[in-house]
């Protein structure tokens, strides 16, 4: 039970930020500590503010200059945290953090058959993942290789592609395509999927769409925010394993 000191407004409890975000509750600014998730690991900290550098050091991602860390919010939105940038853990909606290595892939020349907006190319270049833009007939797609998949699936990483319509970025990104096909560990069927062919491979299309409560915002949304939604979709489907 949460105990609040009326004089100091101190919450005598460890606050789980992920649970607070999912419940749409506002975390207290003064409490015994915060339980935060970085990647798949949980940590308890006693301060309400931390820098990107401190978060990476906490997760033992060193040297920190070889990694980036993203702040993830309820609903799949993401924001990169710079090394010396201060994060307020009591900000409403902060769900968790994700780290990405900045190592460059060597020995392979990635295909760049069409250009993306600068913000997309910058995001993908620092993601640590190999990516390509591929044009096939009238289809324009971005392929991202070895994208991390949460526990509960048949693989730990998967290739994915996103269809880039000619009106993008004013028109929204929609759905996602996976290779190889994803399956849940409990063999439970994944709803709203179908087969798709592109770049000589069989892909699994997930028909997942934005809602009126979370519409595409031209000028704000881009590949990075859409991949945040993809992670959210993967996590939501994985929750069915325990149901």
SSE string, helix = H, strand = E?
A: EEHEEEHEEEEHEEEEEEH
Radius of gyration: 19 Å
Pick out the low-confidence regions.
1-7
What percentage of residues falls in helices of 4 or more residues? 10-25%
β-sheet strand percentage:
35-45%
Instruction: For the record, give the distance between the C-alpha atoms at the N and C termini, rounded to a whole number.
Output: 27 Å
According to DSSP, the number of beta strands is 15
Helix vs. strand class: alpha+beta
Q: Indicate the mean pLDDT.
A: 89
Kindly give the count of domains: 2
Strand line-up in the sheet with most strands:
10-11-12-13-15-14
Characterize the biggest β-sheet. 6 strands, antiparallel
Number of helices: 4
Shape: globular
Description:
This protein is of the alpha+beta class and 243 residues long. It folds into 2 domains: 98 residues, Ubiquitin-like (UB roll) (Roll), CATH 3.10.20; 125 residues. 16% of the residues lie in helices and 35% in strands. The chain is built from 4 helices and 15 strands. The strands form 4 sheets. The chain has a 6-stranded antiparallel sheet with strand order 10-11-12-13-15-14, with no helix packed on it. Strands 1-2-3-4 form a 4-stranded mixed sheet. A 3-stranded antiparallel sheet has the order 7-6-9. The longest helix is centred in the last third of the chain and has 16 residues. The N terminus is likely disordered.
């Amino acid at each position: 039970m949460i105990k609040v000191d009326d004089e100091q407004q101190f919450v005598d409890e460890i606050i789980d930020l992920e649970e607070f975000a999912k419940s749409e509750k506002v975390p207290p600014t003064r409490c015994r500590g915060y339980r935060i998730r970085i990647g798949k690991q949980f940590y308890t900290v006693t301060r309400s503010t931390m820098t990107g550098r401190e978060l990476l050091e906490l997760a033992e991602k060193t040297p920190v200059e070889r990694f980036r860390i993203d702040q993830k919010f309820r609903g799949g939105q993401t924001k990169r945290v710079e090394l010396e940038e201060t994060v307020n853990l009591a900000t409403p909606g902060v769900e968790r953090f994700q780290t990405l290595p900045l190592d460059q892939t060597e020995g392979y020349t990635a295909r760049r058959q069409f250009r993306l907006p600068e913000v997309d190319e910058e995001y993908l270049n620092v993601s640590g993942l190999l990516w390509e833009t591929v044009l096939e007939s009238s289809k324009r797609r971005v392929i991202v290789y070895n994208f991390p998949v949460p526990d509960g699936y048949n693989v730990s990483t998967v290739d994915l592609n996103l269809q880039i319509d000619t009106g993008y970025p004013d028109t929204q990104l929609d759905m996602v395509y996976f290779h190889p096909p994803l399956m849940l560990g409990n063999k439970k069927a994944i709803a709203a999927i179908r087969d798709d062919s592109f770049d000589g491979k069989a892909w699994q299309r997930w028909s997942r769409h934005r809602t009126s409560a979370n519409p595409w915002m031209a000028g704000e949304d881009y590949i990075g925010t859409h991949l945040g939604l993809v992670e959210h979709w993967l996590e939501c489907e994985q929750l069915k394993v325990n149901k």
